[in-house]
Design brief:
Elements (H helix, E strand, L loop, with lengths): L1 H12 L22 H11 L3 H12 L8 H14 L3 H15 L10 H9 L4 H17 L4 H13 L6 H14 L22 H7 L6 H16 L8 H7 L6 H17 L4 E3 L6 E3 H11 L6 H12 L6 H6 L15 H11 L32 H6 L4 H17 L1 H6 L1 H6 L6 H13 L5 E2 L1 H8 L7 H12 L2 E2 L2 H17 L4 H14 L1 H4 L3 H5 L15 H14 L11 H13 L25 H16 L10 H18 L4 H20 L2 H5 L6 H23 L1 E2 L3 H24 L4 H21 L11 H7 L1 H6 L2 H14 L12 E2 L1 E6 L8 E4 L4 E10 L4 H4 E6 L5 E4 L6 E5 L2 E10 L8 E12 L2 H4 L2 H5 L18 E5 L4 E8 L4
Parallel strand pairs: 3-4, 8-16
Antiparallel strand pairs: 1-2, 5-6, 7-9, 9-13, 10-11, 10-14, 12-13, 14-15, 14-16
Length: 974
């Protein structure tokens, strides 16, 4: 009994009660950030004088402020503003208010009243101007609030009568940025000059065109231009006031006035304006053209540059006014010529003829004022002549560019300005010479060069600058000449150029190719002389290694393409040389039909419809592949193999579609590699038995990743749909790598980190291509996003199984081609790699190797193109060319002319090094340039609060053929 009782007591008092874990309330931690306003208040209270307060404010300006803290900070700043007596501190506070108003996510409408109230008691003009600048910032942040806009306009109008120029400037800037036509101001709304009833913003601003301070006059003109940029139509009555400001004493005013006159000439070109002191009227655009032409002779070179540039955009001006700018003689002796009938009528109405008894009784009755009577301002006569002869080369360049714009729209003007542009080829500044050559190239379709003009043009071939010579070669390619003597002269000078500068070989040959094809009838009478043929005697066969002889043949063969009678003048060896050049320089020698010599060479390409038929074939190939629904479908591999082969061959035959065909073939190659890596035999056998297949699949996954980076960065013209498709393939390759990592059993820690990284990749894909997800139905990434909650919470092993199943069941995405897609290509011209003579240099020293390459469809080559040098011992050097080494001869074309410095230890015999061009890429470059980054920046443009981007993948892609160069480092002599 006692034992039973003892046991029961123990049971009763030793009972253990376990409280379930879920019932314990978790402690919630609230992380509170330190209040910016409290810290600022403490700092300002600690300040014993204005210098300390200013230092605290400067330190505060360097730190970011969150949007929710801005209002509290503004209250503290305003509170201190009212207490502060020092102007510099109040000025800094006013500046900080404007900066805080720009904070992303903060609406500054709550501080408008306080900011306006501070204006009332402010005595300092500088602080007042800064406060108005803050109000301007607030107004631009709240464009959809008409009430606040109206209040700010009234504040600006009220302070327009301030004596300090800075305050008036800011008020005019406020009116220009916020003023609207629909809200007229009345005289009761504030003091202002010359008020009379209701007035709009434009008339108020125009009142300050005559302000005593030139800075205010400039601000008034800029405010009016700001109204124009906002879409408000400027009144034509402003034109006379703007014209008067063209003669202002200050260059900033004249510069703004030139811009104002140009704007009005574009708004009201057909308005009729009277000529002072005359009964004549002309169009407003012609009058503005004359007045701006007069500014080409201004005392300030900056105004002259602006006037010359502005003239180039005035395409609506009348032809006779336009042509007058090339003639220094004044128009019509500064007055309108009267007809004989008008002169006889005036003589009859005078009542008598001159008797000769009275001195000068037949003199003109009115006094001639040369500044008012002329139909066009005297400065417009020869305006471009003055501009092209200006002492400042900036003015000369601006005049040349303006001539180009006007000549492109007027063939008759192009012919008249030809002599002036050719004269600019002798300018002492290289930049001016280069610009005049480019301009003449752009208007070459309208002009034909005479022999004397061509002589002046060809004299530039002696220039030591390679850029000048190549620009001139480009000009001659597109220039029409008038006589066969011109062809002979051009050929002679180009051969001299070839002899003096052998590196220009390819450029000269290309120039002669176009020269011959444009002038076949002029080349025909020169053929016996050029080829040194004789009707009776057999002449010696020239040397085919001579670049000058090849240049002559290129000229003749391109002319022969359009001249069927020319081949009859060829010698037997000329036909053999044609066959040789057609194979070795096919891009310079056209296909010809040469009868009578056993040669019947015609173009093997299709007709005009070849591009359309090739495009149709490309689309049919993609449609044929799109029937593959699953990656392990039977026969899919063979179909992909045949399609890839067809597309690669299509790219070789049709250069116009080479980029699109290569892009499709590379994409299908990725799908084929993925298909082979997911074969049944690899995944159905035990892990220890599949090591060999595992290695193959790992290599395939790595190759797919490399190909996707090529697809993304080597091709231009891609749309968002294609980029999403590329990233989708990359995600499949990364999933395959993750599965293979788990099968290799390297350890749990690498697997966990790989799983986390893959989940980040999925989230990144969803964030980047949110708009493209509807087009990715039933795809691999679509299934993963549906399983995302499960993937985030499961163990790594289970996640790998899900990925393996999803990867094998995923279908192949159909590729849709964009309109234009181009592959970035590079061709190394120099070195050619054909020389057997080694480049010798002393061991330990350097030797310079000249690199000349042509780049096609490369985006931002200054930052992406690199030169790689590979030595025989496996060493590799990558050189980044200077930005100045790149030229842009045409759209989507760049030229790289640089030097690479080589050095090595002593060799016993010469060996070859390989030189190739690389295209560098970074996977973070696209995301960093996105506009979403700008929206995350704080009020002081700080990058501190932005989370760091994921690890960017950087690499290089070879995009040119390797050129081999013999070098021989010799041991140094002791």
């Amino acid at each position: 009994m006692a034992a039973h009782l003892k046991k029961r007591v123990y049971e009763e008092f030793s009972k253990v009660v376990q409280i379930p874990h879920e019932e314990i309330p978790a402690k919630k931690l609230r992380l509170s950030k330190p209040s910016k306003s409290a810290a600022l208040h403490i700092d300002l209270c600690k300040a014993t004088n204005s210098t300390d307060a200013l230092q605290y404010l400067l330190q505060f300006a360097r730190k970011p402020v969150e949007a929710e803290s801005v209002e509290g900070v503004v209250r503290i700043l305003l509170e201190h503003y009212y207490k502060e007596t020092d102007n510099s501190v109040r000025l800094k506070i006013a500046s900080l208010l404007g900066l805080l108003s720009k904070t992303q996510g903060f609406s500054p409408d709550c501080i408008v009243d306080d900011a306006i109230s501070t204006l009332g008691n402010e005595k300092s003009h500088q602080v007042l101007a800064q406060l108005l600048d803050t109000l301007l910032v607030i107004g631009t942040q709240l464009p959809e609030s008409p009430a606040i806009r109206q209040r700010l306009i009234e504040v600006a109008y009220k302070h327009l009568s301030d004596t300090y120029f800075g305050v008036r400037n800011k008020c005019l800037q406020l009116l220009g940025c916020l003023g609207v036509v629909e809200t007229p101001l009345t005289k009761d709304e504030g003091p202002g000059p010359s008020l009379g009833g209701s007035r709009d913003v434009q008339s108020i601003i125009s009142d300050y065109f005559g302000d005593q301070d030139p800075r205010v006059r400039t601000a008034a003109l800029k405010a009016m231009l700001q109204l124009h940029e906002r879409g408000i139509k400027i009144h034509d009555i402003i034109y006379d006031q703007a014209c008067r400001l063209l003669t202002d004493d200050y260059e900033q005013v004249r510069s703004a006035a030139v811009q104002m006159v140009w704007v009005l000439s574009q708004l009201y070109p057909e308005n009729i304006v009277p000529i002072p002191s005359s009964n004549e009227e002309i169009r407003l655009v012609d009058d503005a053209f004359g007045k701006i032409s007069h500014m080409v002779s201004d005392g300030s070179w900056m105004v002259r540059v602006q006037a010359a540039k502005t003239l180039g955009s005035m395409l609506q001006v009348s032809p006779h006014f336009l042509e007058q700018t090339l003639d220094k003689k004044l128009m019509s002796d500064l007055r309108r010529k009267r007809t004989a009938h008008e002169r006889a009528k005036e003589l009859f109405t005078s009542g008598e003829f001159s008797s000769g008894r009275k001195w000068a009784d037949d003199a003109p009755k009115e006094k001639l004022d040369t500044n008012t009577v002329n139909l066009i301002a005297s400065g417009a006569c020869g305006a471009f002549v003055h501009g092209l002869e200006d002492e400042m080369f900036e003015v000369r360049i601006a005049a040349v560019e303006a001539l180009c714009q006007l000549a492109q729209s007027s063939p008759s003007f192009a012919e008249k300005c030809l002599d002036f542009l050719v004269d600019m080829f002798n300018d002492e500044i290289e930049e001016v010479r280069l610009q005049s050559i480019h301009v003449l190239r752009e208007i070459s379709t309208h002009i034909t060069l005479r022999e004397d003009q061509l002589d002046t043009v060809l004299a530039v071939l002696e220039d030591s600058s390679r850029d000048i010579r190549e620009a001139l070669h480009e000009l001659i390619c597109y220039t029409n000449v008038s006589t066969k003597e011109c062809i002979q002269l051009a050929l002679l000078e180009l051969l001299k150029n070839l002899n003096k500068y052998p590196t220009d070989r390819n450029s000269v040959w290309k120039c002669l190719k176009f020269l011959g094809s444009r002038h076949p009838t002029l080349v025909l009478p020169l053929v016996p002389e050029l080829l040194s043929t004789h009707p009776y005697f057999d002449t010696p066969e020239p040397d085919m290694d001579d670049p000058a002889y090849i240049a002559v043949l290129v000229l003749v063969f391109n002319a022969a393409k359009s001249c069927p009678t020319m081949p009859a003048l060829f010698s037997d060896h000329t036909f053999r040389h044609y066959a040789y050049l057609r194979d070795s320089l096919s891009h310079l020698v056209p296909p010809l039909r040469l009868p009578g010599s056993g040669l019947d060479l015609v173009d093997s390409r299709c007709g005009s419809g070849s591009v359309e038929s090739a495009q149709l074939f490309l689309q049919q190939s993609l449609n044929r592949v799109s029937i593959i629904q699953n990656l392990d479908a039977p026969g899919a591999q063979d179909l992909l193999d045949f399609t890839i082969r067809d597309l690669r061959r299509l790219g070789e035959l049709q250069t116009e579609l080479a980029g699109a065909a290569d892009f499709c073939a590379t994409y299908l190659r990725c799908q084929l590699l993925l298909m082979k890596a997911l074969q049944d035999r690899l995944w159905n056998m035990a892990v220890p038995l599949c090591l060999k297949q595992n290695v193959t699949a790992t290599a395939a996954a790595q190759q797919i990743l490399e190909e996707t980076y090529k697809l993304e960065f080597l091709y231009s013209g891609l749309e968002s749909r294609q980029v999403a498709t590329i990233h989708h393939v990359r995600l499949q390759a990364k999933a395959l790598q993750l599965v293979l990592t788990a099968r290799s059993r390297q350890g749990l820690d690498p697997l966990i980190s790989s799983c986390e990284k893959f989940l980040q990749d999925i989230e990144s894909f969803q964030r980047l291509f949110l708009t493209e997800l509807p087009h990715l139905q039933d795809s691999f990434v679509n299934k993963l996003l549906e399983l995302m909650p499960r993937l985030s919470s499961c163990k790594p092993v289970e996640m790998v199984k899900i990925l393996q199943t999803t990867l094998r069941q995923s279908g192949m995405l159909h590729l849709r081609l964009p309109e234009q897609i181009h592959r970035a290509t590079a061709t190394i011209i120099e070195p050619t790699g054909e020389s057997d003579n080694p480049l010798r240099f002393t061991t330990g020293l350097v030797v310079a190797l000249d690199i000349d390459a042509t780049l096609e469809h490369v985006q931002d080559p200054q930052n992406t193109v690199k030169v790689q040098v590979l030595y025989p011992d496996g060493q590799s050097h990558v050189i980044h060319p200077k930005p100045g080494d790149f030229r842009k001869p045409g759209p989507d074309r760049h030229r790289l002319i640089t030097q690479v410095y080589l050095s090595h230890t002593a060799w016993t015999e010469p060996s070859q090094i390989e030189v190739r061009l690389l295209l560098a890429y970074s996977s973070s470059s696209a995301s960093l340039s996105s506009p979403s980054l700008a929206s995350k920046l704080g009020w002081n443009d700080s990058l501190d609060n932005i989370p760091p981007p994921e690890a960017a993948v950087e690499g290089t892609i070879p995009f040119s053929k390797a050129v081999k160069v013999y070098i021989m480092p010799k041991p140094a002599r002791r």
